[in-house]
Amino acid sequence: MLQFIRKTFVIAEFETRKIIHDPTEALMRMVQPALWLLIFGQVFARTHLVPGHNYLDFMTPGILAQSVLFVSIFYGIAVIWERDLGLTHKFLAMPTPRTALVLGKALSAGVRSLPLMVIIYIIAALLKVNVIWNPLNLLGVAVMVILGCIFFSTFSLIIACLVKTRERFMGMGQLLTMPLFFASNAIYPIAIMPPWLQVISTGNPLTYMIDGLRFLMIGEKGHLNLFADYGILLGASVALVFIGGILYRKVII
After folding, report:
1. What Å distances lie between residue 139 and 15, 122, 127, 213, 216, CA to CA?
2. CA–CA separation, 6 vs 40, rounded Å?
3. Residues 80, 203: contact at Cβ < 8 Å?
4. What angle do helix axes 135-163 and 226-247 make, rounded to 10 degrees?
C-alpha cells in the first residue's frame, strides 16, 4: 500500500512539473471563470433568478465547479499525445500499477485546478460575494476541487483510451461538457428545472460537487449533507480509477 501511494505521488509530481514549466496554461484557464463572473454573473444578478438569494453568491460555487469540469474533461488528450510521442510505452514498462499511473495523473489535474480556486476567490472578494473565509472551509473546498478533478479527468482518460484519436476525443469532450454543465445546479437551482431534467441532474456527479461547494463557500445547505457529497464523489472516483487502470493499455492497441 505504501509503495502504491509513493508511486502515485511520483507520477503526480512528474505531471505537475509540466505546469511549472508552462505557467501560461494556468493563466489562460483563469480567463473563462473571470468572464462568467464579471459579465454573465453581473447581468443575471439583476434577474432575481434565485428568490431570496444574491445570484452572484449562488453562482460562484457553480462557476468554480464549471472551471474544474472544463479543465478536467479535456485532460485525456494528454494521454493520446503521450502515446504518439512514445511515452505511454515507457509508462507501461515501469514497475508501477496502472491504477497508480491513472490516479497520479488525476491528482496532477487537481493541482492544476487549485489556481482557479484562488482566482475565483479573489474575484469573489472584489465583487463582494459573501463567501466564507474560514480556513477549514477553504481546505474543504480544495479537497472537493481535487476530488472533482480526479473524477472528471479519469472519466476523460477513459474516453481517450476508448476513442484513441485526438479528433474523436475532442468531439466527445465537446459533446459531454455542455450537457454536464447545464444539467447541473451550477447556474440555476434544481427546483426550477422541468421534472425530466431534475432526474438527470440527480444522476450528474457535477451536481454533488456543486452541492458541497455551495455549502462550504456560502453556507447554503444542499439536497444532501456534505459528507454524502464527498462520499458520492469519492466512491465514483475510486470506481473510475480502477476502470481507467484496466483500460489504460488500450490506448496503444
Report:
1. 23, 16, 22, 11, 9
2. 43
3. no
4. 30
> pLDDT of 40-87, one tens digit each?
777 777 766 676 678 888 889 999 999 899 888 888 887 887 777 777
**Model pLDDT for residues 7-19, shown as the tens digit of each residue:** 777 777 776 776 6
For residue 206, name the pLDDT band (cuts at 50, 70, 90): very high
Phi and psi torsions of 21, nearest 5° = -75, -20
Residue tagged 443575471 (cell numbers): 44
Distance CA 98, CA 242 (A): 9
Q: Which domain covers residue 241, as residue numbers?
A: 2-252
Q: Is the pLDDT of residue 26 over 80?
A: no
Domain count, the chain: 1
Residues in the chain: 253
SS3 sequence of the chain: CHHHHHHHHHHHHHHHHHHHHCCHHHHHHCHHHHHHHHHHHHHHCCCCCCCCCCHHHHHHHHHHHHHHHHHHHCCCHHHHHHHHHCHHHHHHHCCCCHHHHHHHHHHHHHHHHHHHHHHHHHHHHHCCCCCCCCHHHHHHHHHHHHHHHHHHHHHHHHHHHHHCCHHHHHHHHHHHHHHHHHCCCCCCCHHHCCHHHHHHHHCCHHHHHHHHHHHHHHCCCCCCCHHHHHHHHHHHHHHHHHHHHHHHHHHHC
Please check whether residue 68 is in contact with residue 145, taking contact to mean a CB–CB distance below 8 angstroms: yes
